[in-house]
Structure formats: C-alpha cells, structure tokens
Specification:
Elements (H helix, E strand, L loop, with lengths): L2 H12 L11 H10 L5 H14 L3 H6 L2 H8 L6 H16 L8 H4 L7 H12 L8 H10 L11 H12 L5 H14 L18 H4 L16 E11 L8 E2 L10 E2 L2 E4 L5 H10 L7 E6 L5 E4 L3 E12 L9 H4 L6 H10 L2
Length: 346
C-alpha cells in the first residue's frame, strides 16, 4: 500500500470544509495556524471568522490597538499567541510591505513563527516540500510505523520530521501535510480510534501488534502548580469599581482584572478582613464584604490550577480611580473574569 497516496485520497473524501483551506493567502493560513495551536478547530473557527472580519488584511491587524486584539482573542487562551500575532503582523506590514516571505527559511525569521508554523505556511500557501509535524503527525506516524521513540525526547522532532519528509510526494506537500494532520484529528484520534473502519487497518503496525493505545510514547508529565486567587470587586456609592492591568510576566499578561490577593489557601471572611487592613487598595471606608461564589472556582490551565473566589467590597463615597461598568466591559479580561462579569450582569 502506498501510504501517502492512500492518505491523500482519504483526505479528499473526508476533509472538513474550513475557510483557511479555501485559500492560499499566507495571511489567513498564518492566522489559522496561530489560533489552532493548543486549540480545537471547533473552538478556533468562530475566532478566525471574527478576526478576519475585523482585520481583513495584515495591515488592518498591524494597525489595531493591542487591547482590541486581546479583546477579540478573549476566551481562546494562551494570550502570548495574541500578543505575538500582533507583533508579527506589524513586522510583515511595516518591514515587508504586507507580503509574507515565500519560503520556509525566510518565514522562520519572522517574530513568533517557529518551525511548525513556517512549515505550514510554506507548504499550504506555496506548496514548498517541507514536512509539517504536530501532535497529530506524531500520533499517526508512531502508530503506523510503530515508532517507539519518546516524543518528548530531544531527538524525537528530528526523527519524525525526517520520516515525514521521506513520505512527502513530489509536488503535493500541500495536500499531504493537510491530509496527515486531518487524519490524526478525525480518524487516528488519541483515545479509542475506530481502527475497524480505518483505511490502514491491514497495514498499521501498531494495530497488528495491539499497541495503538500505547503509542505515541510520551514520558514527561506536566507539573501542575496550585494557586489561590482572591479577586476584590470594589463597589462605591455610584456603582463604580476598580480594575487593574496585569503588567507582570506570566499568565494573562496585559489583560485586565480586579485587585488581586494571592494566598496559600482559600480565605475566610475574617482572614480577608485582616488582609484588607494590611493592603491599602483604597482610601474609602470599607462598609462590608461578602462573597460572590460560595464554592471555590477551579480554573485549569496547562501548568496551573487556579482556585478563584470573587468578593464584593462595598465602600463609602466615590472611588478616586473608579471605573464604570460600561467602560469595564470593553476591556480584555481572562475568560474566567469575563464570564463572572457576564453572569453577575453588572
């Protein structure tokens, strides 16, 4: 069986109709690839449509304010992607006159574009014979060829890239790369793939040896950090609140939030009152405090689990740096805070 030919035939019969596949414009391809990193297609698609409507060209994205970009990105997570996206758009627009480089080597020189994204743009937009290797490709190749190399090891990327390069049919890099990624996304899925109805069920080494569930091998486990966030939702007598921007490096950089207390555990009302006496957030007299969510809200990120509570802090008079809710809702927030604001209908 010709693996590459069969894979392309499967793709042409089963591929999803996605907007970034109906174009060879590198701007739209780049935009989709950045959005789909660590993100499912179903989640990323509406964001792609909103972005292309708001920013139909790379010049439109480059000229946008960063807060506008972050607001449109809100809920997609991994916000460094949005900030890098904006910077790359500015580089392409202002240094390259809006034209993306037309080959893999030059694409790599752009800010925020690594080997995977450069290969995707080069092959999808320009049909350059360069392999694209992502999680789907690791899975398909490791199972079909029974590759037992730990994909988290230092030499894995080079090994799988070389194997994928050998399979690239001449003049069909565009089709093959999209085909193998789509096959991994729809057919050769991580858990309980439908091997009985797979085009490779007579030639897949992992299936013949009953090792499908064991491949690919990935030994490194992510260390998860547990953090406790207490957000203070101040409310003055004219219904203004306090908002601050996260300027420190780390999660949610340049997004907005309520004043934050990070502690080693969930706070009782008494403990919070004591901390409010030590931390001078406002000069106004505090009238009372009350908790919005009785149960701790757990927000899971890749490397962190955030235990979040929102507290209402009513104060006398008018906050000197207060913001009205109409203005607040225009700002980009982490999705967990955005959802809280929407749920409470401020």
């Amino acid at each position: 069986m010709n693996f590459s030919k069969s894979l392309i035939q499967w793709y042409l019969q089963n591929k999803r109709d996605l907007p970034w596949r109906n174009t060879i414009d590198p701007y739209f391809i780049w935009l989709s690839e950045i959005m789909l990193q660590q993100t499912r297609v179903a989640q990323g698609l509406p964001y792609f449509l909103r972005f292309t409507e708001a920013f139909p060209t790379v010049f439109d994205l480059a000229k946008a304010d960063e807060e506008q970009v972050l607001k449109l990105w809100q809920g997609l997570g991994y916000y460094s992607r949005a900030r890098n996206l904006h910077k790359t758009a500015q580089q392409v627009a202002f240094e390259f006159n809006g034209k993306f480089p037309a080959n893999y080597a030059e694409l790599l020189k752009l800010k925020g574009i690594g080997e995977y994204t450069a290969a995707a743009i080069a092959s999808f937009a320009y049909n350059e014979s360069v392999p694209v290797v992502d999680g789907n490709v690791y899975r398909v190749l490791s199972r079909y060829f029974e590759v037992e190399t730990d994909i988290a090891s230092s030499g894995a990327k080079k090994e799988f890239t070389q194997l994928a390069a050998e399979l690239l049919p001449a003049g069909e890099a565009n089709l093959f790369n999209q085909a193998i990624m789509e096959f991994g996304a729809l057919q050769c899925v991580p858990k309980n793939p439908d091997c009985a109805n797979c085009i490779f069920n007579n030639s897949c080494a992992a299936l013949q040896k009953k090792k499908v569930a064991q491949l690919p091998i990935k030994s490194k486990k992510v260390k998860v950090r547990t953090r406790f966030f207490t957000y203070l939702v101040f409310e003055d007598e004219v219904n203004n609140t306090l908002i601050q921007k996260r300027t420190q490096k780390g999660i949610w950089h340049n997004l907005y939030e309520f004043p934050l207390l990070e502690t080693d555990n969930d706070l009782s009302p008494e403990a919070l009152s004591d901390l409010l006496l030590k931390h001078t957030y406002v000069e106004n007299k505090i009238l009372d405090i009350s908790r919005f969510n009785e149960a701790v809200m757990v927000h899971k990120l890749t490397h962190q689990h955030l235990n979040i509570c929102f507290w209402k802090v009513r104060v006398a008079g008018k906050l000197s740096e207060g913001t009205n809710w109409k203005s607040v809702k225009k700002l980009p927030f982490p999705i967990v805070i955005h959802n809280f604001i929407e749920a409470e209908r401020f």
